[in-house]
Amino acid sequence: MISNEWSINSERLNRPGREHNIIYEWEDVLSLELGLKVVNRMNLKMEFIDKVLGHLRINPLGHFQRRKAIVFKLSANTYSDWTNSSKIIPWIIDFYLPSYKYDNFFKVTSRNHVVFISSREVYELLTKHKLFDKEKYIHMPLTMPDKYRINGNEHFDKKYDLVMPGRSDSMLMSFVEHYADEHPDFTYVAREHIDGKCAYSVNNRMLGKKRIYSFNSQDAYLDLVKSGKIGLWSTRGLDFLECNGYNQVTPRLLELMTCGCHVIVRYPDNADTRYWRVNEISPSINDYESFRLRMDVCLSSEVDMKSYARYLNSHYTSNLVFEIKKYLY
Question: Which of 9, 89, 256, 291 could disulfide-pair with 261, CB 3.0 to 4.6 Å?
Fold first, then answer.
């Protein structure tokens, strides 16, 4: 029986934030569908402890790695930690290692029989490496938890013109500010950091700025997204040097669609955006005139929720169950 041998958990590091709540929701769906127990890893705050445990082959989920587990790893690393074990299937969420560190990555996953790679872009880049093993490194994409499944008949009360609840692309943000200057009645919600905490403000050129609330709850976050007619999304690598040029499609795009938002997006043409067929959702916006025209259309039209439902139907967490089962025996 799978449930007697395997568990599922994530790296529960000391990194609070709303964006990690979705990881726990993936765990919940997979534990239910696969019959796996969710096991909380001890909260190790210091990297060197991980290294020591990896060297000693001691697993925080069970002494000397007695327990098998699928483990969501927040990022790929170049040191051998406790997840480098034949009993562990790491599921790597973010992979930003430059190509000259690929050798290290393959070495620090040397004991794993299987490694899940969430980014199709990264997966295809790794396939060109001399140490790549197509039987071991498997593309397993990120998903939308099933609890948020839509049927296409949903209707949400749209209180704001635009909602930007998370990370904002600097180019798109400059377009928003320009658009707001040209349209004084335009109202948008943006995230800001105050005393190290996230807060959200409603912005309108005529009415000024008004702070509304802050939260870490996934449900509260999605309620805020549902209140916007439009949402912005971009691949992270376009705006952040730390990503080393990688541009993975993130679940935020799925969240915007789930919440019935028109999406204005910025992304490159790569293996990941092609895998997700992002071009079928929206063209990439890279200049202000295209942005302005897209905004005008979105503000004057309704979202096609039926189309969103058809697209999202292929991207729920439970859809991966059959594929994952093949690696648990």
Answer: 256
Please tell me what DSSP assigns to residue 178: H
156 and 252 assigned to the same domain = yes
Structure tokens at 241: 């040097």
| Cα 22 to Cα 40: distance, rounded to the nearest angstrom | 15
The contacts of residue 247 (CB under 8 Å, 6+ apart) are: 121, 235, 236, 237, 238, 267, 268, 270, 272, 273
Is 25 a domain residue? yes
Side-chain-facing half-sphere of 141: CA atoms under 13 Å: 23
CA-to-CA distance for 318 and 308, rounded, in angstroms?
18
Angle subtended at Cα 294 by Cα 288 and Cα 297, rounded to the nearest 5 degrees = 145
Q: Which residues contact 309 (CB under 8 A, 6 or more apart)?
A: 150, 151, 152
* Residue 266's CATH number: 3.40.50
* 180-224 pLDDT tens trace: 999 999 999 998 877 767 788 999 988 888 887 666 678 888 999
For residue 202, is it within any domain?
A: yes
Query: Do 152 and 283 fall within a single domain?
Result: yes
Domain housing 61: 2-140
For 310, the token pair is 């058809």
